[in-house]
Amino acid sequence: MPTTELKTTLDKALQVNLDPKRYGTFAEIGAGQEVVRWFFRAGAAAGTISKSISAYDMKVSDAIYGRCKRYVCRDRLESMLEYEQDLNLERLKSERGDTTAFFTFADTVSARNYHGTNECHGWMGVRFQAHPRDESSQIIIHVRMLDTTNALQQEALGVVGVNLLYGACMLHHHPDKLIESLLDNLSTARIEIDMIEFSGIEFRHVDNRLMSLKLVQLGLTSAAMFGAKGKVLQPSEVLRKKAVLVERGSFRPVCNTNIDIMRCAHERFIVEPEVDADSVIQIMEVTMSNLMADGQIDYRDFLARADMLVACGMTVLISDYFQYYRLAAYLSRYTKKKIGITMGIGSVRELFDEKYYTALEGGILESFGRLFKNDLKLYVYPLKDANKKELMTIENLEVSEDLKNLYNYLIDRGCIEQLTNHDEECLEVFSRDVLAKIAAGDKSWEKMVPEEVAEVIKTRGYFGA
């Protein structure tokens, strides 16, 4: 997603080099000094680079930055940024601090090994002063490298690194534009950026949840995650070796039914033979198609949903995976443990609608093959039919005649399980009714949502409360 006036990578490096107040360190581990190389090639590097270092040997790296369990991780990156920036200030501040805004660029990367057996990803960041004598600000990103050769991955890392440092120096006052510029002179076929975090004085008003949403909206990644305290998370680190239970919804607002759906599914999920109850992570997922139901994203509406989910202590996933089989593939990329998806019976009806699978050569059969191939399981919450006064369940759900055998096969095989441990009162609660009562000034809505959600809605005036 290029910026309005696309500059070449060399142009960006040269512009930073020619800025008399920019001066700092490059510390790179794992894929060569691919970022700093651009600044050397551009010319005038002596005015920009105080030091360039690559501590490849683990013992050498530990001696400089301290011991670390893993070398390609956020902790290692943060220790590199802190150590090198402190050195810049300690050694150079008294001599040139009045005219120099110091920076440290760092990355720790696992590029493709000789056999092609490793996960190709890396952490990259910059700690910088926007102005001389200023407090430091920081940007951290996590990248997945998608090129098939080590040389191409190194090249792509160099470009995105230049984009990041250029953005920190020239676009820090426009975080949205900074994010858009990260893949200048690249494509999403080569690099995925699945996490970004802004911190420090320059970004004190930045909401990192919105920045996560921007990553998905702009196509830099297909999914982004933030935690129960609103802190952005890197998906592979959160999901690694975890059994995962996901509930998809609009959560507008989060109501008692949403919480009951997850509770019911969790009670069933943790007794599965292959699930360690202590390793389960519960995730509430919101899709971009849901957020863009009106054609464009209402950011205040998004933050309302995010605040409510965070108030409930939930980990939140924003994804561009409208089809469930794509969500399943995404989760399977990061964990080999059991995956469960919980949904209402209405979503099961949609799941068996063949119009959603016309882009697949194998149609709905291919979709279900992908969805259930890793022993994934669906947990289905019932619906009280207002007209028939009975519960709609997987036993009486009407599906297309030519799909009944497939439907029954998946039930018999245990791929689809009916939840029966529901709270009867929650069957009467729907988000649309909560919104209608809020609009009408009917305070009975407060009993239809968790207490902490009611407090968030009232305190922040969401949905016109």
Automatic annotation (TrEMBL):
UniProt keywords, alphabetically: Receptor
Highest taxon above the source species: Bacteria
Record's protein name: TonB-dependent receptor
